[in-house]
Amino acid sequence: MKIIHTSDWHLGRTLHGADLSQAQALFIDSLVGQARREAVDAVLISGDVYDRALPSAGAVDLLEDALVRLTSFTKVIVTPGNHDSAKRLGFGSQFYRPELVVVSKLEQVGQGLSVGDGLVYPLPYLEPLVASRFFDTQPSHQAVMEAALARVHADLARRRQFAPQIPAVLMAHAFVSGGVTSESERDISIGGMQIVSADTFGSELSYVALGHLHRSQQISAQIPMYYSGSPVPYSFSEAAVAKSSLLVTCTESGTRVEKLPVPQLRPISVLRGTLEELLGGNFEKERESWVRAEVTDTCRPPHLHQRLLAYFPHLLSVEFFGSAHLAKLPSRSRIERQGAEVTIDFAKQVGRRELSESGKKLVHELWYQLEKGDEHAAS
To answer: Which SUPFAM superfamilies match (predicted)?
Structure first.
């Protein structure tokens, strides 16, 4: 079985307001070419196909283009991530031709798909509050993943009675212990703990195709387990991170994983120095990059943004780190706090005591409904 593992396309996302559709289209062109050259049995997309539950028309067009081109010569298996609407992504999937499979329902968990000489077990994103009701377990990422994997391993054990060496690949969208994060991932914890132990996946699978973290990386585990990472950088913390898809070959004797580089529309760069240093010619090669400028003058120079933009035409972010300004800035952790956390803290300040666990759970559920709409409304 030969597959390409990719994830976290986040179609429709921007980088500090910059339109990334051209960068995403360049990736799709590259992916189609690589899949054709390698004659893969399938392309796996492990979640976060879109950047939001209600994608833009342009994002839908990009996905349609990718799927039409890929399914003309290979199979494509898609699962929703925490940014996708499972219902909307999976709408009409029962009418799709066999070359396109979208697994978006919990009822499909544990159903192996034949790919080449092996099996693929796709898991839609297991939202704890919803999946815990379906599996009748605790509302945590760990508990619902354990329940889903019990179904997968039961089906695999049954099949291996007749084909003991058949390769088996799992698709999952989760934060697995040992993974390295970036600034561009948004918290996926809505009630319960967000991390899943790598040991949960056991030792019977040939490969685990993970989505959610945007850095391509291997997870230390009993079996080959990788994040493909996002094909396009979605934050300046990924400035030095090479983007790739993963070519995975599974045979009876083992699994081989190779990186397939993803071409980028333009690099991203984080530049630090005084305004004179930034404009003095030392960063000539970065002028065509998407740039974040970190300015270290003691006092803020006049017309700072305009002067930098005139030199760096793709400037996206300016941060002033002068000593006269630093004391006035709130901490990053304060700025990026989740709505549920702010609500729980506010209730504590007003009521002068902690909310009960059931109260905190209700707050998380309400915020989740606000973010996702009525798709996962609590019963």
So the answer is: Metallo-dependent phosphatases (SSF56300)
